[in-house]
Predict the structure of Alcohol dehydrogenase, zinc-binding domain protein.
Amino acid sequence: MKAVVVYKKGELPKYGEFADPIIQNENEVLISVKAVAITNLDKGIVSGDHYSSGHENQNGIVIGSDAIGFLENGTRVYARGLSGTIAEKAIVEKSRMVPLPEGISDEIAASMPNAVAGSAMALRFRAKIQSGETVLINGATGFTGQMAIQIAKHYGAKKIIVTGRNEKTLQSLLELGADEIISLKHEDEAIIAQLKVIQQNTPIDIILDYLWGHSAELIFSFLKGKGNFTHPVRYVSIGAISGDSIQLSAAILRSVDLQLSGSGLGSWTKDEVKLLFLEILPEMFLLAAQNKLKVNIETIPLADIEKMWNAEVPDGKRLVVMV
């Protein structure tokens, strides 16, 4: 079969022939792959930078963690791969498949799951969002951040504040449901002042952070209390595009009613992952089929993967490989 294979961490994936995957037990099933999204997770695993990166294999490893494809009986599904998914065929686990509704294309369906997991899981299980709450999304101009805006609104957020550096994309987020934007291109003092005004008018209940780094330090600094009662805040770290480490004063943790947690692979419980496949993804696929969720994608054929792997994808878009 045709597949995209990596032989050594950090090297460019190669397009070519690879042996068909073989089912090992009754819990596995073969799918014919039609579309696969390229995510920051996939790139991090290939480079070896992501904490879930496995061992190298001199014979090569097909890359890709999930896919849209067809079962032998013709059922179209989204599924997590047990073998690599950027290939003509892949082995998937029966318990981690979601049948797709009519009205959603392969490429749109492929683009969504990583972003849904990166937003809905944090909102539902870490932040435990309640209707009427105010949400701050730090780094909302990316694909997952844009998804988070729409899902937060769907879950009942009263007000959504977003941050980012791309001024044009920031403005477009108002059309997706954001109520107020904060440009991270401004001086630190201006950003903190804007956050303080927001906090006074509509106290922030939930913070989803896709950036970490310096912008997280600014957010923590504005949250710092002065010894009085403070508004409870649930801060969820999801990504670290701006840097993996920050300086965090212990005084901030002692001076504010703050719940700090992370949402990602390894942090979710088995029951939470089960609900992702049984409830969350089916609901989001249906919303997209009804044109109630908007996504911005760019598609490429499988054979073009090598030249497009390191290409700059416009802010807020997801690259989808069509097989």
Notes: The longest strand covers residues 28-38.
